[in-house]
Amino acid sequence: MLSDDVKKIFNDKFGYDSGRTFFSPGRINLIGEYTDFNGGHVFPCAISMGIYGAYGARDDNKVRVFSQNVADQGIIEFSLDDLAYSKADGWASYPKGMIAQIIDHGHQLTHGFDLAVDGNLPDAAGLSSSACIELLTAEIVNDVFDFDIDEVDLVKYGQLVENKYLGLQTGIMDQFAIGMGKANQAILLDTNTLDYDYVPVEMGDRVVVIMNTKKHRELQDSKYNERRAECEEA
């Protein structure tokens, strides 16, 4: 199981056994592409593919993260005392940005931690691996430090990571579908008001096919912000 794999990865990289494991799902959108940042309706659902995280507490202010999906980047380290964005952090900008948002909203982390992640969610393939990492980090921090932050607020923090920390003007659908997703349910979400309803997904003998075209999708390097600006102008 992937949860066992990520525990072994944690031990191999950090030299001790992790205390706990967590899971965050990816998402697909059934109806409503590119309407979320225009305040429209979307119809996403969480999927069983996702990212597992193994967590271990530290007794200092360091945070060390490792992703098996981008193992060549090695262990990335930063301090809770300096959470400013740095392009050199690569994928670690997502957990780092989420920690920064949680702190900015009045919650103080009393110690650092080590985190190893692994999963079966293809990176940059349109299944929201970035939002998945954001919400995985949010759930870990919220649970471990007993912050009791409302799930919708964690979802909003995830969007702020993209909008304010990374400068990517994405909508809220990805984080909402991941943070609020339920088994065998899709979410009819009004992205303008955040009113939502769960709708049973009863497929019968039908399936949803997800095709990985191997086309790398990096929104930070795309014209996403330009397209959004054009929509707002229109």
From TrEMBL:
GO terms for cellular component: cytosol. Residues 10-55 form the Galactokinase N-terminal domain. Residues 94-182 form the GHMP kinase N-terminal domain. GO terms for biological process: galactose metabolic process. InterPro entries: Galactokinase, GalKase_N, GHMP_kinase_C_sf, GHMP_kinase_N_dom, GHMP_knse_ATP-bd_CS, Ribosomal_Su5_D2-typ_SF, Ribsml_uS5_D2-typ_fold_subgr. SUPFAM superfamilies: Ribosomal protein S5 domain 2-like. One of its GO terms (molecular function) is ATP binding. Keywords: ATP-binding, Kinase, Nucleotide-binding, Transferase. PANTHER family: GALACTOKINASE-RELATED (PTHR10457:SF7), MEVALONATE KINASE/GALACTOKINASE (PTHR10457). Belongs to the GHMP kinase family. GalK subfamily. This is Galactokinase. It comes from Lentilactobacillus farraginis DSM 18382 = JCM 14108.
